[in-house]
Amino acid sequence: MTTPDSDDPSREEFLDAIEAETEDLCHIHDHITRIITNLDIREEWFRGYDDPDRAKFDLEPMVRLFLYKHARELNQSEVARRLRGAAYVYLRLGFDQPISQQIISHNKRNRFNAAERSLLKDAADVIRTVCGEHDVIQSNEPALEPEDVQHDQVSEAEIMDAVQRATDLGFSEFSADRASNATYPLEAYFERQGYLNMSRAGTTTASRRFARLSERKTVPHGSSHNRTMKKVAKPESQLTFDEFVTGQQTPEWKRIRDEVLEPFHAGVENILDELTDEDYAEAGFTEPVHAAIDITAWNFYASPFISEQDARTSDKTPIEVTIDGEEKLLDPDHPDLVSGLKDSDERGYKFATITIIAENTPIVLGVEPVRDQRKWEKEMGWDVERTSRADIVESLLEQASRHVDIHKVFLDRGFSSLETRDVIDQREQLYVLGKPARAKVDQDHIEDIQEHEAYDSRIVHGSQTFDGREHEMTYVYTPSKKDGDKYAVFTINEHVDHHRAEALLGQYSQRMEIENEYKTIKKHFLPTSASKDFRIRFLYFVIGSLLYNVWRMANFILRDAVDVDLGDHPPILAGELIELVAFCLFDPPD
Fold it and tell me: What is the pLDDT of residue 202?
């Protein structure tokens, strides 16, 4: 194909396509380098050599290289240095190894004609402009930074060894019922799933992107991948003894939960054993631990309702429901575990986690799916098995107890209930739990504080009774850190004084680490998915949580060579795992 010149309308079409795709990628990635390496390059725009068989390097990586060079405004020597650095830029661009400045110069002169070189510059200008509008242009690479490393012996090999060790610990127990003569071993699918989770790609993403990172000669296709991952999360079809006796079968989503969590907990146990191994100068954590519990959502955008027109042409039989006096048609295939999100018109799957609150090694100890009651289920009086916040807390504490002893538990006011407090207190664990300030007695205390000239907080001692059980409580009223004009209320299951309350609230603030955890998992370790299948959604989230643990574990292994706070400045950034774990999950056969 002839390369479009400056007056060719197809040139503008190409630049418009680059602009549109860059715009989309800016909503997924936070760095211009990642955006360039995820663009779909149209090779037909570039003639390459007249004799392409003599090209030592593929055309697409070369196109990305020059887009990267111009968009980052680098000269050839600067590009060559970056390719040789620890940023793994060459892998992102699609090269098997760093290339020299001489090779870059040779390809510029001989691989692209004048019109093509001009097109590359213009396309790079478009990319840089769009990325600038989205504030994703940074001077550094999303990788190991020199200022973060205070020891000259942290090599790429050591980083790879650390990630390999952490990955082996986290993913060794997953399995699926696959024939011994299957085209691909299960390891190939987890290698691909690791890539999907870390690159936020979907299973329909062209296999060639994953193939650039894999050392396998061939890689699983998206449709085959989906089938296999569903098998990994498929529960046993045989009834348990209790189900057989009572005739009541456990809901499918709970059986899926149990199936997926067993290998997850095996990986967690392996990682925790490593973190406390005597070979390390200092353990990653000490027991009893502090833990935080919270809930996050993974958006699901399909509406639960269908129109009358769509119902007439559909092969599905809609369910008639009444909401706020209005009759609606419910999609019978709408997932049971998708519900409305707080303070939003959006919907999504919800997952709760319990995490060790440790300065350098916050580790996810448990994951629990959330089954909330939907508005139409409540209004129609349907009998559905939902998970109360107390049920969630009890399950997560039980999961965590398989691995560690917990001393203190921190929860926000979304978990506030008499039953939740009773669940924790029965385990003889200390809780600091937020409480909505809706009760009149709370408002009265807050008004007294606001009118007082000398103090801005209050401690009130009391007790709570639930199901005949009573325990002591302290109510703490203190100015909100989010809004200084408002007050926050916390409950503690002990009678404490001001000094003790202040110390506990200081520890409570560490639970914000779980918010950072969710941001990291969603941003770096969850793939794009529109699947309605709970097996896929839950498995993906659990794998994302394990990848988070692997990231934290790998940085712990490297910490003896790094003189920084791993919580703030980990030597391996979360986004960097895409290039590392894709190589480390499993070794392909010879």
Answer: 46
Q: Give 476's strand partners.
A: 459, 490
Residue 537 and residue 529 in contact, taking contact as beta carbons nearer than 8 Å: yes
Rg of the chain taking only CA atoms, in angstroms: 27
CA 169 – CA 272 distance, rounded (Å) = 9
**Does the model's pTM come out above 0.85?**
no
User: For 178-211, how does the pLDDT look when each residue is reduced to its tens digit (9 = 90+)?
Assistant: 444 444 445 554 555 555 554 444 444 434 445 5
354 CB-near residues (< 8 Å, 6+ apart): 291, 292, 293, 364, 365, 366, 396, 397, 399, 400
How many residues belong to the chain? 590
Q: Please say whether the dihedral angle defined by the alpha carbons of residues 43, 225, 212 and 133, taken in this order, is positive or negative.
A: positive
β 347-356/289-299 pair status: antiparallel
Determine the Cα–Cα distance for residues 84 and 351; give it in Å rounded to an integer: 41
Cβ atoms of 478 and 505 within 8 Å: the answer is yes
CB count in 10 Å sphere of residue 120: 22
Kindly report, residue by residue over 407-418, the tens digit of the pLDDT.
999 999 999 999
Q: Which DSSP helix (H) or strand (E) runs through 391?
A: helix 389-401
Q: What percent of the chain has pLDDT over 70?
A: 69
Assign 546 a pLDDT band (cuts: 50, 70, 90).
Answer: confident
In 140-208, the DSSP E strands lie at: none
Give the Cα separation of 403 and 367 in Å (integer): 13
Residue 480 burial (CB count, 10 A): 12
CA angle 428, 431, 435 (to 5 degrees): 140
CA distance 461 to 372: 33
pLDDT above 90 covers a percentage of the chain that reads 29
Contact 38, 29 (CB under 8 A): yes
